[in-house]
Amino acid sequence: MLTGALLILAPLFLGFALALENRHLMTAIHYGVEGLVYFILALLGLSLGQMEGVGGQLANMASQVAVLVVVLFGANMVGLWLFHRWQPMAAREDQVDQPRGYRRLFLAGLKPLVAVVVGGLAGFYWLPDLPMAEDVATWSLMLLLFLIGLQLRNAGLSLRRLLLNRQGLGIALAMAGSSLLAGFAMVPLLDAAWHESLALASGFGWYSLSGIVIGDALGPAWGGVAFLNDVIREIIALAIIPLLIGQRPAMAIGYGGATAMDFTLPVIRSSGGLDCVPVAIASGFILSFLSPILMAVFLSMGG
């Protein structure tokens, strides 16, 4: 059950309101965020491992993940293609780095899965039932959002300049709008309430957030579905960015969702050139703010 969906937004905005100048503190915050992400994902795995009848639910979860990934991919590609046709943007070939392997990035993209699997195995085979795990996960998420708010505020980015980046803002809105339309379309396919489907569609690739927020509200099975959908988005983005960004940068940048400002940014930079970087940062930043707001609003509609 959801424990105050809208409450999770408070630490995010509180962190964003605080300006810091100590570089050592910001470095500590960076490592704190990284550690909290894997801790929260391990707790998500623990909840899945200790879920009653988990074996019987795996097939159903797999079909729900498949629906989310396929429908969102199609909707996002159409929405972003339409935006590209309206506001075309071209990557500059003279700024593109030489092609290189992305094995390291793909392996890094699999780390969240490892954290969830380890937590799931521990919960299923070794650990006793931990009734406080859900509360610990919720408070850990709130701390994570506070630290992320600090990072966003102190990343040297001007909110005004990000919002005035027409390409980045347009890509973010096309991505969000097409995802929400897909959320409505998936209601009968997911056998979920409309507000639950919209919440699932609002992760935008932020797997550590969507997994625990959805899991807290709808149970560990749906939390696992949300996590897998968003981590698969990240992995697909790593594969398609080099293929699309030369001719359709909006589609390549937009599909990365919230990760365009961090995890997938090196691939965007090396494949699309420097001109794509501010667009990707603006789009990823806006989606990173929209994601928790939209999920909290939609989930709060469930009572």
TrEMBL record:
Name a single GO cellular component. Answer: plasma membrane
**Pfam families to which the protein is assigned, alphabetical:** Lys_export (PF03956)
Membrane spanning segments where? 61-84, 105-127, 139-156, 168-187, 207-228, 235-257, 277-299
Report whether Transmembrane helix shows up as a keyword of the record.
Answer: yes
Keywords in alphabetical order: Membrane, Transmembrane, Transmembrane helix
Q: Does the keyword Nucleotide-binding apply?
A: no
Give one GO molecular function term: L-lysine efflux transmembrane transporter activity
Protein name, per record: Surface protein
